[in-house]
Amino acid sequence: MRITRTGGGHGRRTATLATTVLTASALLLTGCSSDDDSDTDANGNITLTVADFGQFGYKEAGLFAKYHELHPKITVKEETTANEQDYYPKLLQQLNTGSGLADVTGIEVGRIKEVVDTQSAKFADLSKTINVSDWVSWKEKQATAKDGTVIGAGTDIGPMSLCYRKDLFKEAGLPSDREAVAKAVAGGWEDYLKLGEQYKKKAPSGTYFMDSASAMYNAVVSSSAQQYYDADGKPVYKDSPSVQQGWNLAAEAADKKLTQGLPQFTDAWTAALRKGTVATVACPAWMAAQISVNSGDSFKGKWDISRAPGSTAANWGGSFLAVPKSGKHVKEATELVKWLTAPEQQAAVFKAIGVFPSNKGAYELADVKSAKLPYFSDAPIGQIYAEEAKSIPEAVLGAKDGVIKDTISNQINNMEKRGTKPADAWKAATDSIDKALG
User: Fold this and answer.
1) What are phi and psi for residue 229, nearest 5 degrees?
2) For the whole model, what pTM was predicted?
3) What is the DSSP string of 63-82?
4) Residue pLDDT, tens place only, 273-297
């Protein structure tokens, strides 16, 4: 999902399956489209640009090269921005000016509602060429405008799990087998904090139970159908039970110092993974690659993956591919999107980096159904994520989901690192959000 799956979502992404080893540099590519990128040369050869953020996995899975083999006159050029929070403002600017857009552009789930509501007329209707019912049903609805136009093809979803360092658990006297860990947190994220208190008592020197309380907060909220908006499009985040639960748990984690207080995807966060100071990470499917890439070879086999706390499934993240109407090769770009989001290609991406497919047809393919993750002690992730995906609630999305999530996450970080009192942090968050919502 790219990395970053920022506080808002797909955070995007992702994990090493099979024997693929990803490099950190894959997460750091940046670029901006130019109006000439899609020109056809004198021989009729076309270059299609794909603008995305974090790590979508297409290059790692060899899909762009494969597409060129199937279509010799088409070359695909990927332009990646490391952080989605940097990518999205640039995309909005390009949409508003009608300049600099790629042939295919990625959209994170935390932004899709705003794009659907305000920019849908600027994108090709993919329902004319793609069978959108192939996706999980709620994924299709997320990208569908009121007039029935479908502006984005679902790339992935983010079913939740718990990534943990089994060696650190053993040292702290905690159960380390993935089934035993799942049992220990079966009661929900409250049990997760109780486990954290046990860990803290005998924690190996210099280690912390979790990376950040804001990550746990996002995992909690992601398990609810009602998050920040109601079905009528009204912001209800102040009274949302899932937001209140997530906030209270985050405040408790900060107060009990169970967290290292590191905003995800920052330099400090990646350094902590590299040094091995983090024992657990709330782990949507795309997160595993972030951990494996940043932790490095020295921690291979020391990480494992268990089912997420509680019995309620959660989805954190997921992205879309869209085709701007202003592109010079809309037909070819649409065909590329159709191919990239087909079951076989989504399965290939899952095998390469662990991004879990949104196309239901991929779930019975061997590369998904029987997938294990060597870096994470051969965790049966195909099984874990597929089981989680079956019962993910259909969340109501709002236009400013990303803004609300990011703002609340920032204030949780202030509670962790600056010692801001929960009441003061909540007021700062709501004041900022209300101002952004107008």
Assistant:
1) -135, 155
2) 0.81
3) HHHHHHHHSTTEEEEEEEES
4) 999 999 999 999 989 988 998 999 9
